[in-house]
Design brief:
This protein has 163 residues and is mainly α. The chain has one domain. It is built from 6 helices and no strands. The longest helix is centred in the middle third of the chain and has 37 residues. It is elongated.
Length: 163
């Protein structure tokens, strides 16, 4: 490894004007891709096609749902304790819980990555644009708002390329 390989320059682009948009969005996309969450943030997608993480949260089950003869469980009926399961019922619960725990860990990892993306967006825009996104709670909503506000038009892009 050469000396130059050891030098890492950490640089960011502050989004202030339309000419910053392309580089700034590239860095946000790069960060989201590294964390596997671009499909939740991509401002090119419509609100109907962007993935919604809240719909992906794994659903927990009660111990009673693994009981063979539990019958119909009423909402106000208390759950049973794990020790009330028979060995085969406990085995089913264990297998299910192992899968559930993995899904929940992946969900929480993506949720943390999206929260970090929200912070990254806020930290890398000019302070005068903060009020534009203050009511947007998701990275997708913030990126869509900023795109409307600061994405250069086609004529502006052509002009930039000529410079």
């Amino acid at each position: 490894m050469g000396y130059e390989d050891q030098l890492i320059t950490k640089e960011t682009v502050i989004l202030d004007k339309p000419s910053d948009w392309t580089k700034w969005l590239f860095l946000r996309k790069d960060s989201a891709d590294r964390n596997g969450v671009w499909e939740y943030c991509n401002p090119e997608l419509t609100a109907e096609t962007v993935k919604d993480i809240t719909k992906e949260k794994p659903v927990d089950k009660t111990f009673r749902s693994f009981k063979r003869n539990a019958g119909i469980v009423e909402p106000d009926q208390p759950d049973i304790e794990i020790y009330e399961l028979e060995d085969d019922e406990y085995g089913k619960w264990q297998r299910w819980h192992s899968i559930y725990a993995g899904k929940l860990a992946n969900y929480e990892k993506r949720e943390r990555a999206l929260a970090e993306m929200n912070r990254e967006i806020s930290r890398t825009i000019a302070s005068r644009h903060i009020t534009s996104i203050q009511d947007d709670s998701t990275p997708y909503a913030r990126l869509v708002t900023l795109k409307k506000l600061l994405s250069p038009s086609n004529s502006e892009r052509r002009f930039e390329l000529l410079e």
